[in-house]
Amino acid sequence: MTDVSLNDGLDDGRTPEAGFGDYLALLKPRVMSLVVFTALVGLLVAPAPVHPFVGFVAILCIAIGGGASGALNMWWDADIDARMKRTRGRPVPAGRVEAGEALGLGVALSGFSVLMLGLATNWFAASLLAFTIFFYAVVYTMWLKRSTAQNIVIGGLAGALPPLVGWVAATGAMALEPWLMVALVFMWTPPHFWALALFVRSDYGDAGVPMLTETHGARATRNHILAYALLLAPVALALGLTSVGGPIYLAGSIALNAAFVAGAARVWRRDQATAEADRFLAERKLFKLSLWYLFLHFGLLMVEATPLVVRLEGAVAWL
């Protein structure tokens, strides 16, 4: 009888078969969570009642569409991901999932999410979701990411559109409020990613991605971070003056923007030697703050939309 080791097939150089977690990773769940949250807020603050089941289906479809974009991104970017320390362990470059499988999954989920959103809500929202997937997978991933230092700036539109999709799914129409939500995410995206690029800069250079840190240097990147932080603040505050805002949102937004501008100013004042000496401490802090910045802004919009807050604000206004 031949002695078969339990480790056979793992120690002979072959890659283990993909598991459920690998296919889930193709959908970029962390990125998808941001898409889901902003879309959910867009749907909940819209001035139209939505049946809970319809709302659930709408957000599920938007989440699946976001995941489809991630799978298509990983299919196309497998060569880049393989050269970056931060991404080389992803399923496609690591060899656990075939590129064709990622492509097939992305295409199938794209079609399914758009079709189901159209059937569950309206075809206007479905067309916006289709455009969002197309913009991220084709315009950003296949073109902008490899061709221009403005990749994050222009490509950020794809990640900014979900709250508009959520709003249109509820109302079937455009309005100023969701576009300001889009503008908030759009203006937030560059300083968020540039702060990250400052302390993982070698990754982008090794992969040949023309991130601003590689094409224009750290000094220009620091200048851009501060400029965008200053431009972001009035957009965030303007949202508080619309029908979905209010005093709670405005108070929180003022505090968040003061902290964000202060953090960007600290990053701007530093030179490369200082940053390297403390292992990019200020840059890492700004990146972490940027995550809380967006989450809390949309969280405050949800707070403003709750019936209790609406009643309290109405009572204060009456007094």
UniProtKB/TrEMBL annotation:
Its EC number is 2.5.1.141. It comes from the Bacteria. CDD domains: PT_UbiA_Cox10 (cd13957). It is found in: Cell membrane. GO terms for molecular function: protoheme IX farnesyltransferase activity. The chain crosses the membrane at residues 31-50, 56-76, 97-117, 123-144, 151-173, 179-200, 225-242, 248-268, 289-310. InterPro entries: Protohaem_IX_farnesylTrfase, UbiA_prenyltransferase, UbiA_prenylTrfase_CS, UbiA_sf. GO terms for cellular component: plasma membrane. It catalyses: heme b + (2E,6E)-farnesyl diphosphate + H2O = Fe(II)-heme o + diphosphate. Keywords: Cell membrane, Heme biosynthesis, Membrane, Transferase, Transmembrane, Transmembrane helix. PROSITE patterns: UBIA. It is an enzyme of class 2 (transferase). The keyword Phosphoprotein does not apply. HAMAP family: CyoE_CtaB. Carbon 2 of the heme B porphyrin ring is defined according to the Fischer nomenclature. This is Protoheme IX farnesyltransferase.
